[in-house]
Write a structure and sequence with these properties.
Layout: E1 6-10, H1 20-31, E2 38-43, E3 49-55, E4 60-66, E5 81-84, H2 86-93
Parallel strand pairs: 1-2
Antiparallel strand pairs: 1-5, 2-3, 3-4
Protein backbone atom coordinates (compact mmCIF):
# COMPACT_ATOMS: atom_id res chain seq x y z
CA UNK A 1 0.00 0.00 0.00
CA UNK A 2 2.49 2.64 1.14
CA UNK A 3 6.11 2.13 0.14
CA UNK A 4 8.51 2.45 3.08
CA UNK A 5 12.23 2.23 2.33
CA UNK A 6 13.58 3.25 5.75
CA UNK A 7 12.28 3.20 9.31
CA UNK A 8 13.47 5.68 11.93
CA UNK A 9 12.88 5.56 15.67
CA UNK A 10 12.85 8.77 17.73
CA UNK A 11 14.07 8.16 21.26
CA UNK A 12 12.44 11.21 22.89
CA UNK A 13 8.71 10.81 23.74
CA UNK A 14 5.96 12.57 21.78
CA UNK A 15 2.68 13.94 23.12
CA UNK A 16 0.10 11.62 21.53
CA UNK A 17 -2.45 14.44 21.30
CA UNK A 18 -0.52 16.02 18.40
CA UNK A 19 -1.89 15.84 14.90
CA UNK A 20 -0.27 15.44 11.51
CA UNK A 21 1.21 18.95 11.25
CA UNK A 22 2.76 18.89 14.73
CA UNK A 23 4.10 15.36 14.17
CA UNK A 24 5.64 16.47 10.87
CA UNK A 25 7.20 19.47 12.62
CA UNK A 26 8.67 17.10 15.22
CA UNK A 27 10.10 14.90 12.43
CA UNK A 28 11.81 17.93 10.89
CA UNK A 29 13.05 19.03 14.33
CA UNK A 30 14.45 15.60 15.29
CA UNK A 31 15.55 14.17 11.93
CA UNK A 32 16.31 17.39 10.05
CA UNK A 33 13.88 16.63 7.21
CA UNK A 34 11.16 14.20 6.17
CA UNK A 35 12.40 12.00 3.31
CA UNK A 36 9.94 10.44 0.84
CA UNK A 37 9.20 6.78 1.57
CA UNK A 38 10.58 6.98 5.10
CA UNK A 39 8.61 6.18 8.27
CA UNK A 40 9.26 7.98 11.57
CA UNK A 41 8.20 6.34 14.84
CA UNK A 42 7.44 8.08 18.14
CA UNK A 43 6.14 6.78 21.47
CA UNK A 44 4.61 8.49 24.49
CA UNK A 45 6.36 8.62 27.90
CA UNK A 46 4.70 5.44 29.16
CA UNK A 47 5.59 3.66 25.88
CA UNK A 48 2.12 2.15 25.52
CA UNK A 49 1.21 4.30 22.50
CA UNK A 50 3.03 4.85 19.23
CA UNK A 51 2.59 7.18 16.26
CA UNK A 52 4.14 6.57 12.86
CA UNK A 53 4.43 9.34 10.30
CA UNK A 54 5.12 8.25 6.70
CA UNK A 55 5.99 10.62 3.86
CA UNK A 56 4.83 8.90 0.65
CA UNK A 57 6.38 11.43 -1.73
CA UNK A 58 3.11 13.35 -2.19
CA UNK A 59 1.76 13.83 1.32
CA UNK A 60 2.04 12.39 4.79
CA UNK A 61 0.24 9.60 6.64
CA UNK A 62 -0.09 9.48 10.41
CA UNK A 63 -0.97 6.18 12.09
CA UNK A 64 -1.41 5.41 15.78
CA UNK A 65 -1.12 2.16 17.74
CA UNK A 66 -1.98 1.50 21.37
CA UNK A 67 -1.17 -1.54 23.48
CA UNK A 68 -3.93 -2.40 25.95
CA UNK A 69 -1.54 -4.44 28.09
CA UNK A 70 2.20 -3.92 28.42
CA UNK A 71 4.39 -1.40 26.65
CA UNK A 72 6.54 -1.05 23.59
CA UNK A 73 10.22 -1.89 24.07
CA UNK A 74 11.60 1.56 23.34
CA UNK A 75 15.25 2.49 23.06
CA UNK A 76 17.05 4.27 25.87
CA UNK A 77 20.06 4.90 23.63
CA UNK A 78 21.79 8.23 24.18
CA UNK A 79 21.36 9.21 20.52
CA UNK A 80 18.09 10.87 19.56
CA UNK A 81 17.30 8.62 16.57
CA UNK A 82 17.87 5.05 15.43
CA UNK A 83 17.42 3.25 12.13
CA UNK A 84 15.34 0.05 12.21
CA UNK A 85 15.16 -2.93 9.88
CA UNK A 86 11.76 -4.21 8.76
CA UNK A 87 12.12 -7.25 11.07
CA UNK A 88 12.89 -4.95 14.03
CA UNK A 89 9.86 -2.79 13.18
CA UNK A 90 7.60 -5.84 12.99
CA UNK A 91 8.80 -6.95 16.45
CA UNK A 92 8.47 -3.43 17.89
CA UNK A 93 4.82 -2.95 16.89
CA UNK A 94 3.98 -6.28 18.54
CA UNK A 95 5.62 -5.18 21.80
CA UNK A 96 8.52 -7.64 21.44
CA UNK A 97 12.21 -6.90 22.24
CA UNK A 98 13.17 -5.68 18.76
CA UNK A 99 16.82 -5.07 19.75
CA UNK A 100 17.37 -8.86 19.67
CA UNK A 101 16.18 -9.26 16.07
CA UNK A 102 18.68 -9.40 13.21
CA UNK A 103 22.40 -8.95 13.75
CA UNK A 104 21.96 -8.39 17.48
CA UNK A 105 20.45 -11.88 17.86
CA UNK A 106 23.25 -13.79 16.13
CA UNK A 107 25.25 -16.21 18.30
CA UNK A 108 28.91 -16.21 17.28
CA UNK A 109 30.70 -17.70 20.31
CA UNK A 110 29.87 -20.83 22.29
Amino acid sequence: MIRVDALWLAVEPLDMRVGTEAALARVVQVFGQAHPHHAYLFANRRANRMKVLVHDGIGVWLAARRLNIGKFTWSSDASTTLSLTRAQFDALVLGLPWQRVGEAGIIRVI
